[in-house]
Amino acid sequence: MRTDTAYDDAYATCESTFAWLRVMSEDLRPDSVTSLLDITPTHTQVRGKLSGPKSTRKHKYSGWFLESEVHVESRDARRHLDWLLA
Predict the structure, then answer these.
(1) What predicted TM-score, i.e. pTM, was given to this entire model?
(2) What is the spatial distance between Cα 6 and Cα 78, in angstroms, rounded to a whole number?
(3) For the residues of 7-63, what is the DSSP string, one character each?
(4) 3-7, 51-55, 59-63 — which one is most confidently predicted on average?
């Protein structure tokens, strides 16, 4: 038996909540994921590039990331997952 529970955007037991979709591979071209999904990612990284302006560490994998954190204010994880799936 399934019971639907109402969303609780103020979810008192959580300090913060967010969800993210990560697509990563050694051979990935992040722009190809953007074109395929027709969605602008939150950020990307390219294998072999420096991980930051002051870093000497290079990314081992290319990645395409979509994060709900700045788009959804709710602390209910279901809202964040709904946003990603939409």
Answers:
(1) 0.83
(2) 10
(3) --TT-TT-S----EEEEEESS--HHHHHHHHT---SEEE-TTSBSSTT--PBPSSEE
(4) 59-63
